[in-house]
Design goal:
With 90 residues, this protein is mainly α. It is 66% helix and 0% strand. The longest helix has 17 residues, at 72-88.
Length: 90
């Protein structure tokens, strides 16, 4: 899905001047908030951002977002999703 955000030019300029691609920063903010409120899983944000599991964990750490406490069954499911995704990219 593609989403278009409309923000004032002066706000876009400030965000751009602060560094980085504004679209990427918006996507990362959406991923962070979704993970914080447990709407998105680690695997889902990794897919959104095009990151490996380790890169996703590093990304969360850089933004001071702790890994969610998940059940063993959820952890197994996440591991299986990452494993399946890594087989697709080989």
């Amino acid at each position: 899905m593609e989403i278009t955000l409309r923000i004032p030019d002066d706000v876009a300029k400030r965000l751009s001047d602060a560094g980085g691609d504004v679209s990427r920063r918006a996507l990362e903010a959406l991923a962070l908030e979704g993970y914080r409120d447990q709407t998105l899983t680690l695997y889902q944000i990794s897919e959104m951002l095009g990151l490996s599991r380790a890169e996703t964990e590093d990304f969360l750490g850089r933004h001071h977002v702790p890994l969610s406490e998940i059940t063993e069954a959820e952890l197994d499911r996440e591991a299986a999703l990452f494993e399946a995704a890594s087989r697709r990219t080989r």
